Amino acid sequence: MVLPAPTGPYGVGGVALRLVDEGRRDPWVAGRACRELMVSVRYPAGTAGGCARVPQMLPGEAAAFAAWSNFSKVMSEGMADWGATRTHAWRGAPVAQPGGRGFPVVLHSPGAADPRGLGSTLCDELASRGYVVVSIDHTYEAPGVQFPDGRVEYSRMREEAGKAQRPEQVVALLKKLTAVRVADTRFVLDQLGRAVVLPRMPGGVLDLRAVGMFGHSGGGFTAAQAMHDDRRIRAAVNMDGVMGYTQRDDDPANPSTVGTDGLDRPLLLMGKEGDDHHTVASWKAVWERSSGWHLDLTLTGAGHASFTDAQSLVPQLARKAGLPREAVEELVGTVAPERSVAAQRAYVTAFFDRWLRGRDSGLLDGPSGRFPEIRFVR
Fold it and tell me: How far apart are CA 309 and CA 27, in angstroms?
């Protein structure tokens, strides 16, 4: 299966880093004295001679994803070779020379129980546009996280969900999930501030005065909540993620603090067909309480997983494996994959360009004939 190539002026480099938070016990495994994470860094690169392309998932991650994921209800194990897909990032390619203050930084958090590699298309695109993108795997939530020594740490979420039988237990689990994700995010940002080393990095590559964040589903909630909690994050994109501790989009109960307080910095909401601040209670709460710039966009014809690499990969898999049309539409809707990817790239890039770089293309001001799939929700 093939991911769309990035369209920006830079080549894309990639490196995976193991980060250990020695000041925090792992919240999911009692015997772990430290919280251990894997992150992928995509960055603007110079020449990539002699470098290999970065896989979307390492073998252990791919096997874990095939065995259990958000796609399991419509795809059987063995239907896809998830480890065979390559991203458009070149492992260890030299970092391009930044101009001025360095490259802005964008953090990425994947959806609940998704691996970080499932957001590769947009991460590669932003890197090709001059951003350093840091994608976080939330260990013991993602299906499997493979560490440099070959060890794979598997998800504990099925066990955790099985223990949450009463409504208040479900709420407590959702609160813990979000709190862990936000703590992971803030730790990664701390590490970037301590000059985590990228390959062949010249001085001044990272502009940590210009930090944004985006995510899909639970990762979108994480982006908004992390921005609420940490003023280092200047702008956030939530792609179809509920922002309250509930399993129903229309349920206003158990709001998060981003819902009760709102945000004073820019927030972009991008939703599938039918998800907007009029229909999703937690979006409505944030919308009404936010003093910062905010915009709500609907990607018409999209499904929930349209905001991941599934948008491109699932239709390819359907053609090869005979996946029924209904299963495809359940995951990625009816929007044409190439149009969906183009729209997401354009609007997310325009958002970060405007709020992290001060470059305003005007795309966020109103509907565009270039992207009829995008509807502005007022």
Answer: 29
Report, in angstroms and rounded to the nearest whole number, the Rg of the chain calculated over CA atoms.
19
Element (H, E) at 64: helix 59-67
Give, in degrees to the nearest 5, the angle at Cα 300 between 253 and 240. Answer: 35
Helix (H) or strand (E) holding 188: helix 167-193
Tokens of 80: 């896809």
Mind listing the pLDDT tens digit for each residue in 313-367? 999 988 887 788 888 898 999 999 999 999 999 999 999 999 999 999 999 999 9
Tokens of 147: 């560490």
DSSP 140-184: TTSSEEE-TTS-EEEP-HHHHHHH--SHHHHHHHHHHHHHHHHHH
Distance CA 192, CA 205 (A): 11
Neighbour-count burial of 71, counting CB atoms closer than 10 A to its CB (0-12 exposed, 13-18 middle, 19+ buried): buried
For residue 16, what are the contacts with CB-CB under 8 A and spacing of at least 6?
38, 39, 40, 41, 54, 148
- Distance from CA of residue 43 to its chain's centroid? 16
H-state helical runs in 194-280 = 218-229, 257-261
Q: Among residues 304, 293, 246, 291, which one has the least CA distance to residue 267?
A: 293
- What confidence score (pLDDT) does residue 48 get? 72
Identify whether the C-beta of residue 231 lies closer than 8 Å to the C-beta of residue 211. Answer: no
- What is d(CA 25, CA 28) in angstroms, rounded to the nearest whole number? 9
Reference 94, options 5, 182, 38, 11; nearest CA is 11
- Which amino acid type is present at position 254? N
Q: Looking at residue 50, what is its pLDDT?
A: 80
Spans in the chain with pLDDT lower than 50: none
Task: For each of the domains in the chain, give its residue range(s) and CATH number, in order of start.
Answer: 11-376 (3.40.50.1820)
> Which distant-in-sequence residues (6+ apart) come within 8 Å of 289 by Cβ?
259, 260, 261, 262
> Can you give the length of the chain in residues?
378
Q: 210-252, pLDDT tens digit by residue?
A: 999 999 999 999 999 999 999 999 999 999 999 999 988 999 9
